[in-house]
Amino acid sequence: MKLDADYKPVHFRWSLDGKVATITLDRPERKNPLTFESYAELRDTFRALVHADNIKSVVLTGSGGNFCSGGDVHDIIGPLVGLDMAGLLAFTRMTGDLVKAMRACPQPIVAAVDGICVGAGAILAMASDIRFATPESKAAFLFVRVGLAGCDMGACAILPRIVGHGRASELLYTGRTLRADEGERWGFWNRLIAADELLREASEFARSLADGPTFAHAMTKTMLHQEWDMGIDAAIEAEAQAQAICMQTQDFRRAYEAFVAKAKPIFEGN
User: What superfamily does domain 13-210 belong to in CATH?
Assistant: First the structure.
């Protein structure tokens, strides 16, 4: 799979502006729900980003004033009722593989969230690296409302690391809506932005990352992910090795030479 300007996914929109890719969930009439097929295509796209040296950051958003309403009731939830355990496990592992792919791709992912962001949609925002939202955003991990556990697609591992254990427990046990101002106060949203400025600001932020030392950004993302299950001594040693690797890059040399010359460094990601 070649991820360039000519990439034509079937189940979402794709655009490439320089080094920034934008993925837009695009079923606005249903508030951009996910289907079996869109889950798989998103998973495969994020997996392919590992090999996409031309792309340095990603914006993930939705169309029509909403982000994502989660799994489609008719296209996913209905068919799941009729599956046996093997079929159910294949589905839940496939959805979890999407989160794994988002965390494993080296590019920082900036979620631009307006309106509805619930169920698997809230998971997509959660799995992103940076989350921008609007004052109208409504996030909910509503699995409990359909008789399921809150432990879906890594939520019990990732969400407490963002908002804290007690707050994550409340959201996952109750499935209640997280208000935008509350979400920003809790640290789920990095910032709140007016709807008409949301995509522009998210894209500009993603572009600023893409113009930075992208080899180092990829290393930061890798370490943020890998250090979740490390002790502090192992984490410090891992970061020592990671930083030593970054010190061998040309970007590190460029930054030093620019500092000496009292100039702004121009990073090239190598």
Answer: 2-enoyl-CoA Hydratase; Chain A, domain 1 (3.90.226.10)
